[in-house]
């Protein structure tokens, strides 16, 4: 961790106020005076975790209205609530399980997700003495994580089955049904980044099992580290997935996101630079992006005693930013769009879990990573009106959307079982609704390919043809390649809408990835089709066109792509184009190589997350590998310049080291921090201490 010099630390204190210091004798969670909640609600701090009570990371109400807590280090705790908060009792009910990221009381049992241990456990009290005397490991999970991306929360579904949220560092467990809606995910990269090598194909998933843990299936996947999930009143599933903040400033950065989970859903998270963009036709898009954050708990207000406007909303917790967001679902075909607002926030308020209790109030706990924990309760106030209003939704639109969702669920059942007639599914491949089309394609892919291969190759409807050919790329063999390419080549490019064009380009990619490389003659035909489209007016089409033309060894793609490495393109677009060009071998000349080296020099000024410098270094290494030794000599000055220190645009005067300052040195002066503050001087100190190279607020 970087140490601040004294001037920088002093100015931070002057600008932002004092730091609360907790002594060893004090264990107090964030007071409600530091929490802001929407008008019409009040927050109570019911209890702060005391010494030896660990940090609390998950919670569930048992059949007696008590709270069972998953502890951050080892074990489980239990809180017996009382009208007098001073009398709320904590007791340890387990001292063995490690890092319990999920707890659920259901079916007269306690289900526990032991993230740093064996997997999913079931506890039962068979003697009635209020002790869990029967303990059973329901499923061993192969957890190999560096960052805590293992088995997370456990949720009881409307079907009374158990749903387990699993992060991306757990392998598919043994004993899962081979007929699971989500099966055998591939990276499906046309031009794999060699620097992503060594990573495996694990992705975050949603598992479902019966109460006894006898049958298991994988419902959906392609997540990073979704901690929780929730069902709305209709039984639709949602999760809140984490971003990879190190990717900020790069084209593969994906913000924290709410995902509508459907059966067989593929949500496109992959390791390294290989994360799928939303416009890949073989994946599903984000439902709501919420920017940088740390997603944790989710719940719906369905069973609350909140006003109607708040009963119909979803609540999602952002651990990093200390807030709970209120999310409105807006029907959109067979899925939804969303809008959100802050329901509650505080500092610090690292919310780990939340749930509506038997009394209809919202309970939440703070904690995690060894931090101070607290139990809070949110209730409506009797004398203050709420101000938030729900979006207005036309009744006809709502009725159509409800019917579309019902149809989608009917289609989804055939992702795990045979359908009597393919024609029950096939017409939905031409749907304008992406979610219906995805569900139908998934269901068709899980039918024997001999039942629909010919139809896919001969389909005349453009949307259905592309979807059917993507299905054949997924399920066919190398013998299908010629037929797939012939069918794709018959599609009139001039008549395509943007979504159809992106799907067609992705279908070409999947054909080469799954069914094999084209012959020279086939490659030439496809080049002639795609060349006139590039560069395209949209960055999404440019991404796929550039990859395809580089893969097909087209010699026009290099000068066209180098021309895009300018400030008229976004930083992310430039990085993606440059990354793709490192795979190109035909079409370079000295002028183009010089321009690429100039771009590498310019790109050193880009700003972003922790891995931006590393990713740009990888591009540089791969580009230099395309040069001969003679060419390296010719560009020796330009290459050497890439290692020279950057000239800082903003610098402050150098300051001598005075001493190794400690917070205690400033404590006598904190009272002065509320007056005569100079933000200008603080900024200069932060510049001099190099703080602003990494840490900024806004611009």
Describe this protein with a few key phrases.
five-stranded antiparallel beta sheet, disordered N terminus, single chain, 27% helix, 699 residues, alpha+beta
Uncertain runs with pLDDT below 50, 5 residues or more?
A: 1-25
**Helicity range of the residues?**
25-40%
The averaged pLDDT comes out at 92
N→C terminal distance:
23 Å
Question: Into which percentage range does the β-strand content fall?
Answer: 15-25%
Number of strands: 25
Strand order of the largest sheet: 1-22-21-20-19
| Class derived from helix and strand content | alpha+beta
Secondary structure topology:
Blueprint: H1 6-16, E1 35-37, E2 41-48, E3 56-61, E4 67-71, E5 74-80, E6 89-98, E7 100-106, E8 109-114, E9 119-124, E10 134-140, E11 151-156, E12 162-166, E13 204-209, E14 216-223, E15 229-231, E16 237-241, E17 256-261, E18 288-291, E19 295-300, H2 308-311, E20 314-318, E21 323-332, E22 335-346, E23 351-356, E24 362-366, E25 374-380, H3 395-412, H4 434-445, H5 453-458, H6 462-475, H7 481-490, H8 498-515, H9 520-530, H10 539-551, H11 557-562, H12 571-581, H13 590-603, H14 612-624, H15 629-634, H16 636-641, H17 663-666, H18 679-688
Antiparallel strand pairs: 1-22, 2-25, 3-4, 4-5, 5-6, 7-8, 8-9, 9-10, 11-12, 12-13, 13-14, 15-16, 16-17, 17-18, 19-20, 20-21, 21-22, 23-24, 24-25
Describe this structure in words.
By secondary structure, this protein is α+β, with helices and mostly antiparallel strands. The protein contains 18 helices and 25 strands. The strands form six sheets. The protein has a five-stranded antiparallel beta sheet. A four-stranded antiparallel beta sheet has the order 2-25-24-23, with no helix packed on it. α3 (395-412) packs parallel to α4 (434-445) and α6 (462-475) runs antiparallel to α7 (481-490). It is globular, with a radius of gyration of 28 Å. The two termini are 23 Å apart.
């Amino acid at each position: 961790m970087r140490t601040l010099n004294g001037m920088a630390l002093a100015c931070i204190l002057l600008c932002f106020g004092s730091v609360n210091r907790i002594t060893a004798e004090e264990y107090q969670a964030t007071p409600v005076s530091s929490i802001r909640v929407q008008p019409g609600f009040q927050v109570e701090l019911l209890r702060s975790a005391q010494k030896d009570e660990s940090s609390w990371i998950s919670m569930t109400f048992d059949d007696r209205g008590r709270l069972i807590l998953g502890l951050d280090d080892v074990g489980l705790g239990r809180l017996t609530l009382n009208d007098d908060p001073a009398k709320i009792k904590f007791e340890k009910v387990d001292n063995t399980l490690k890092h319990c990221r999920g707890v659920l009381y259901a079916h007269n049992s306690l289900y526990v997700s032991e993230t740093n241990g064996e997997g999913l456990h079931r506890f039962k009290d068979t003697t009635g003495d209020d002790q869990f005397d029967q303990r059973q490991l329901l499923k061993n999970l192969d957890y190999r994580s560096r960052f805590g991306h293992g088995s997370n929360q456990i949720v009881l579904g409307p079907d009374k089955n158990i749903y387990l949220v699993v992060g991306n560092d757990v392998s598919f467990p043994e004993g899962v049904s081979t007929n699971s809606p989500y099966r055998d995910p591939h990276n499906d990269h046309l031009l794999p980044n060699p620097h992503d090598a060594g990573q495996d194909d694990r992705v975050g998933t949603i598992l479902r099992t019966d109460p006894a843990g006898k049958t298991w299936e994988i419902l959906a996947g392609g997540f990073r580290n979704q901690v929780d999930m929730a069902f709305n009143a209709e039984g639709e599933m949602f999760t809140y997935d984490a971003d990879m903040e190190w990717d900020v400033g790069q084209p593969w950065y994906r913000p924290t996101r709410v995902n509508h989970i459907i059966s067989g859903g593929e949500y496109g998270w992959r390791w390294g630079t290989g994360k799928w963009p939303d416009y890949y036709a073989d994946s599903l898009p984000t439902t709501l992006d919420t920017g940088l954050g740390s997603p944790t708990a989710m719940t719906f207000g369905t069973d609350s005693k909140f006003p109607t406007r708040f009963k119909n909303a979803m609540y999602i917790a952002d651990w990093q930013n200390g807030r709970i967001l209120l999310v409105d679902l807006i029907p959109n075909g067979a899925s939804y769009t969303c809008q959100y607002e802050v329901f509650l926030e505080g500092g610090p308020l690292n919310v780990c879990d939340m749930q509506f209790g038997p009394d209809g109030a919202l309970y939440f706990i703070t904690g995690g990573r060894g931090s101070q924990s607290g139990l809070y309760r949110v209730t409506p106030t009797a004398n203050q009106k709420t101000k938030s209003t729900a979006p207005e939704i036309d009744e006809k639109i709502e009725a159509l959307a409800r019917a579309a969702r019902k149809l989608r669920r009917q289609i989804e059942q055939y992702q795990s079982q045979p359908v009597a007639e393919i024609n029950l599914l096939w017409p939905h491949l031409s749907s304008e609704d992406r979610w219906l089309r995805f569900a139908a394609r998934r269901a068709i892919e899980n039918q024997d390919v001999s039942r629909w291969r010919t139809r896919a190759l001969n389909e005349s409807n453009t949307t259905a043809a592309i979807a059917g050919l993507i299905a054949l790329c997924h399920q066919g063999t190398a013998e299908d390649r010629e037929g797939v390419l012939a069918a794709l080549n018959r599609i009139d490019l001039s008549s395509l809408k943007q979504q159809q064009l992106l799907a067609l380009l992705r279908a070409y990619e999947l054909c080469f990835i799954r069914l094999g490389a084209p012959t020279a003659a086939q490659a030439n035909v496809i080049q002639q089709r795609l060349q006139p489209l590039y560069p395209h007016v949209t960055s999404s089409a440019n991404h796929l066109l550039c990859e395809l033309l580089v893969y097909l060894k087209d010699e026009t793609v290099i000068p066209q792509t180098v021309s895009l490495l300018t400030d008229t393109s976004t930083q992310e677009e430039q990085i993606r184009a440059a990354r793709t060009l490192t795979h190109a071998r035909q079409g370079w000349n000295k002028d183009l190589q010089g321009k690429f080296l100039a771009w590498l020099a310019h790109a050193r000024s880009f700003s972003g997350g922790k891995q931006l410098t590393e990713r740009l270094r990888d591009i540089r290494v791969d580009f230099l590998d395309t040069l001969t030794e003679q060419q390296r000599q010719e560009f020796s000055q330009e290459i050497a310049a890439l290692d020279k220190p950057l000239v800082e645009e903003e610098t402050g005067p150098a300051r001598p080291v005075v001493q190794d300052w400690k917070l205690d040195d400033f404590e006598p002066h904190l009272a002065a921090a509320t007056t005569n503050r100079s933000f200008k001087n603080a900024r200069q100190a932060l510049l001099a201490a190099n703080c602003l190279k990494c840490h900024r607020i806004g611009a």
